[in-house]
């Protein structure tokens, strides 16, 4: 268990006030500078640079891609001789274990706010909007910079991905649009896992469209530049977990898995279990025409091109041994990885056969990040364990210098970035 949060201090209060002062809305900037000046400052100068930044981003959203595979195949993570290159302090708030994102020359952390740090040395570039948790970078038509989409338990915001620009009068233009608010109730995740946003419910982006969960348990498609809603889908019991591939795949706890048309949200196919024992569908990921769903006992693989037909179920005959809940399957080459309550499992991607099991104690959210042929498992109180995805064998272990847990990392430029307590840690080593 992590230690109790630090007592509130004058320094902490001043830090909170500083954040609030810097979280400036577009409306405030308009009043200070005039709409024409703000439009220029916000970057309404074309789309090429915006799309190029997103396409070249090493880790543009939580879960890596819209399919939530959480695997960057072409990355070269550190493999040995691990060392801390730098440590960037985060605001003095209760630490989180949320995954950052990396794009341009930034690594951006959702730590009850949005903090942008320089990837080279960890220096702070911007700090905006407290209470945000989910992150995704999306190309924004009409802007030269992408939109950084941030989602909390009740709000989704579209921000200038550079953190905005100063107006010269003490204000910062960052917000492009906002939906939801404190009075709209919690997003899915509150129902299943407290008041936080679970892995698998955070925003994802594809082709200038943002997909996110909403307070009414719907999945919403929204324009990344304007925030305009394109469609909204509410199923039988909502849909808190989703991924985007050929379709938008929605997994509903205790109900069904649905494929939606990304153009209009209509249902393309629905998969329900027929054995009278509804599965606890939660985390879902999609890759190469397959949909991998956490069914509460393991992984079920569905054929996305054949009406959701079951391709395989992991470990038939010994499924009670695979104890899991909200984990999102990670797709790594010929393996599908799933993190459970007290272990991490590796399944054969073609057959569903369980290839390996590692008795570890993963932290929440249970979403194993992978880069190249390595997978990274944050563990309760122990730090970060790197496994060979094919075999489950340990490649290396990292223990943070304090007692705080480590969150799911991202890999960029051969370095690994992970939240560890009230800091972002950059690790490097031989590759």
Automatic annotation (TrEMBL):
Q: Which InterPro entries match?
A: PQQ_b-propeller_rpt (IPR018391), PQQ_rpt_dom (IPR002372), Quinoprotein_ADH-like_sf (IPR011047), TAT_signal (IPR006311), WD40/YVTN_repeat-like_dom_sf (IPR015943)
| Pyrrolo-quinoline quinone repeat domain ranges (all copies) | 198-341, 343-423
Q: What Pfam families has UniProt attached to this entry?
A: PQQ_2
Disordered: annotated segments: 1-21
Q: Which domain of life is it from?
A: Archaea
Q: Which PANTHER family match?
A: CELL SURFACE PROTEIN (PTHR34512), OUTER MEMBRANE PROTEIN ASSEMBLY FACTOR BAMB (PTHR34512:SF30)
* Protein's UniProt name: PQQ-binding-like beta-propeller repeat protein
């Amino acid at each position: 268990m992590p230690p109790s949060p630090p007592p509130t201090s004058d320094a902490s209060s001043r830090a909170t006030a500083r954040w609030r002062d810097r979280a400036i809305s577009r409306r405030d900037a308009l009043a200070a500078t005039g709409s024409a000046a703000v439009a220029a400052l916000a970057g309404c100068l074309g789309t090429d640079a915006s799309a190029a930044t997103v396409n070249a981003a090493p880790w543009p959203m939580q879960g890596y891609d819209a399919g939530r595979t959480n695997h960057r195949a072409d990355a070269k993570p550190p493999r040995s001789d691990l060392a801390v290159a730098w440590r960037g302090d985060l605001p003095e708030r209760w630490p989180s274990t949320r995954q950052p994102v990396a794009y341009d020359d930034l690594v951006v952390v959702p730590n009850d706010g949005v903090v942008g740090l320089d990837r080279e040395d960890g220096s702070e570039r911007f700090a905006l909007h407290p209470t945000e948790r989910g992150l995704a970078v999306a190309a924004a038509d009409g802007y030269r910079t992408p939109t950084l989409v941030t989602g909390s338990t009740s709000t989704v915001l579209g921000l200038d991905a550079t953190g905005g620009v100063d107006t010269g009068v003490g204000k910062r233009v960052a917000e492009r649009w906002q939906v939801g608010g404190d009075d709209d109730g919690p997003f899915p995740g509150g129902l299943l896992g407290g008041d936080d946003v679970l892995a698998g419910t955070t925003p994802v982006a594809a082709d200038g469209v943002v997909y996110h969960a909403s307070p009414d348990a719907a999945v919403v498609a929204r324009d990344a530049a304007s925030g305009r809603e394109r469609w909204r889908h509410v199923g039988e019991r909502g849909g808190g977990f989703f991924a985007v591939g050929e379709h938008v795949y929605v997994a509903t706890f205790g109900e069904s898995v649905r494929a939606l048309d990304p153009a209009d949200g209509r249902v393309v196919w629905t998969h329900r279990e027929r054995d009278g024992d509804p599965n606890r569908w939660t985390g879902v990921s999609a890759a190469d025409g397959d949909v991998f769903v956490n069914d509460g006992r393991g992984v079920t693989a569905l054929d996305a091109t054949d009406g959701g037909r079951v391709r395989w179920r992991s470990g038939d005959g010994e499924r009670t041994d695979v104890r899991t809940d909200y984990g999102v399957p990670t797709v790594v080459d010929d393996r599908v990885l799933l993190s459970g309550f007290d272990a991490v499992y590796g399944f054969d991607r073609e057959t569903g056969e369980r290839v390996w099991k590692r008795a570890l104690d993963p932290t929440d959210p249970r979403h194993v990040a992978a880069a190249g042929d390595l997978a990274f498992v944050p563990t309760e109180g122990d730090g970060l364990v790197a496994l060979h995805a094919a075999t489950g064998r340990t490649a290396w272990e990292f223990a943070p210098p304090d007692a705080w847990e480590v969150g799911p990392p991202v890999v960029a430029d051969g370095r690994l970035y992970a939240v560890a307590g009230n800091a972002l840690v950059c690790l490097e080593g031989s590759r």
